[in-house]
Backbone:
RNA sequence: GCCGGUAUCGUCUAGGGGUCAGGACACGUGGUUCUCAGCCACGGGACCGGGGUUCGAAUCCCCGUACCGGUACCA
């Protein structure tokens, strides 16, 4: 039996990169050890949760390739996997705690608690629940019950020290005096986070809890609950948080925080996974570009560092570029095509494509463009000159390369040569361009640059001869002649 | 405030009582070249501060500082 681990997001927002990384670590751990990855939706906060958010989170996980063995849509023997459907269990557990003397009813009003806290705060002190309801006389309780006074259930924190060995941080101890008698079941009969996680982790037989560092301080409460419920605590591993460039907790201010957003911006799931895996975790050697298989093989909780990590978009960009460079053409094209379609650039091709297989041509284009793209979305702009016949000339390009004296004649000569060139392949096109330049007594570079501007309108493009061949003879000649005319009108 | 965590190039990190403190991103220089990108080579750049322990500390211990998290009838 392998370990049972879980990822338990609350659907109050989209899948955050921090959550995604926690999910990734958890998933890697399960896959590494032949365990079970459970997905549980913590939607007890009905007000803030929504089914749209759930769908978004599932989509995000699927996009990253993090498949779950048990959970929404997958089912499993420990369901239901939505906390909102498990309320009876929490209430039963809370009742059991009361019955066992581990918890007690609390009738204190939120106003009173708030006032006490404020009062203490004014004196610069922290206030902890004073156990006012722990020793309520029976007749007082009877009276309160008679009027059905709202009551919450508080956990009676024992005076023993709690300690545990965190898989990432090592031994951690807590003084019980720092922990107040926290509420486990609210007066509205909804559980607090502490109760629901523990009950669910027990029910779902979770062996390892891998979660964000922000839960480290809650862990003693959870351990106390596991004990009170008669269960053994799972192994805990608290992974450090992801910060923004200013070392503050990553938030909208830092730009994109949801994986959906990164997907939209043109990042490949493989790159995202690879990048996230290396944020806070290291295989122990110098490897950086790692396939999912390699990640699984090398993953261990010990490899996770103790400190928070800054989300470095530049490195993500680099890594994405690496993935774009390595992805098989078919896959890359399949990923890019929808973007071209959305931009209205495809299918929308010139005459040449009537005789060429369109997909093969697109493959060549994508291949030509890929070393220049860090994100998929960049393909749209890069591909534009190839997919539309309206050449937009960049002013600087025109200034720099089309204002050469006598250029019209040179370009016209090149157009004439190319018109009859057959076959129209790279070596011949190159020879034609260089030959024309030589005949006309100008440097090849001058003609090359002018031609580039003529056919793409831009200062930069892939290698010119490859561009011309891909464009085809007719479109090349047509664009060259357009420039010849342009230059003629100008002078 | 109290409790907990963390601290190696700007960033992600490896390492760990004796190393030229290694790699990657970013940056700089050069090469390839028709431009850009890419690719290749080279370069600058770090052990938070102070005390201990030790022949020797960046590494172990303590204190401090900074940052992060928690301190709710949020999760």
Residues:
């Amino acid at each position: 039996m392998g370990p049972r681990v879980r990822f338990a997001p609350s659907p109050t927002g989209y899948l955050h990169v921090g959550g995604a990384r926690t999910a990734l670590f958890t998933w890697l751990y399960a896959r590494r050890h032949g365990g079970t990855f459970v997905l549980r939706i913590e939607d007890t906060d009905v007000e803030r949760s929504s089914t749209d958010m759930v769908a978004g989170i599932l989509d995000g996980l699927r996009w990253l390739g993090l498949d779950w063995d048990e959970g929404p849509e997958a089912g499993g023997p420990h369901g239901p996997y939505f906390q909102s459907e498990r309320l009876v269990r929490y209430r039963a557990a809370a009742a059991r705690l009361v019955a066992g003397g581990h918890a007690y009813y609390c009738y204190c009003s939120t106003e009173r608690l708030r006032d006490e806290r404020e009062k203490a705060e004014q004196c610069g002190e922290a206030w902890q629940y004073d156990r006012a309801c722990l020793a309520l006389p029976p007749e007082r309780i009877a009276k309160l019950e008679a009027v059905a006074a709202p009551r919450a259930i508080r956990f009676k924190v024992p005076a023993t020290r709690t300690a545990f060995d965190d898989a990432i941080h090592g031994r951690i101890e807590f003084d019980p005096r720092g922990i107040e008698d926290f509420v486990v079941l609210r007066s509205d009969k909804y559980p607090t986070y502490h109760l629901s996680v523990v009950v669910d982790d027990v029910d779902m037989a979770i062996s390892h809890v891998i979660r964000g560092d922000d839960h480290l301080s809650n862990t003693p409460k959870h351990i106390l609950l596991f004990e009170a419920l008669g269960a053994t605590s799972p192994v805990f591993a608290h992974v450090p948080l992801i910060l923004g460039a200013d070392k503050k907790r990553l938030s909208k201010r830092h730009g994109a925080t949801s994986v959906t957003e990164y997907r939209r911006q043109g990042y490949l799931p493989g790159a995202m996974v690879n990048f996230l895996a290396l944020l806070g975790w290291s295989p122990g050697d110098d490897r950086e570009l790692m396939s999912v298989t390699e990640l699984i093989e090398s993953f261990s909780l010990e490899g996770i560092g103790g400190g928070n990590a800054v989300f470095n978009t530049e490195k993500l960009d680099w890594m994405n570029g690496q993935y774009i460079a390595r992805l098989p053409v078919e896959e890359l094209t399949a990923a890019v095509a929808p973007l071209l379609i959305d931009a209205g650039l495809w299918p929308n091709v010139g005459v040449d494509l009537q005789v060429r297989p369109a997909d093969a041509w697109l493959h060549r284009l994508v291949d030509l463009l890929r070393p220049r793209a860090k994100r998929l979305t960049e393909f749209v702009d890069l591909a534009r000159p190839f997919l539309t016949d309206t050449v937009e000339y960049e002013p600087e390009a025109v200034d720099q390369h089309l204002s050469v004296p006598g250029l019209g004649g040179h370009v016209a000569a090149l157009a004439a040569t190319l018109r009859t060139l057959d076959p129209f392949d790279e070596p011949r096109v190159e020879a034609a361009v260089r030959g024309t330049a030589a005949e006309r007594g100008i440097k090849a570079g001058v003609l090359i640059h002018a031609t580039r501007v003529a056919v793409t309108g831009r200062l930069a493009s892939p290698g010119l001869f490859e561009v011309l061949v891909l464009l085809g003879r007719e479109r090349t000649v047509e664009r060259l002649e357009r420039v010849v005319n342009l230059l003629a009108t100008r002078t």
About this structure: Residues 4-83+242-310 of chain A form a domain with the Rossmann fold fold (CATH 3.40.50.620).
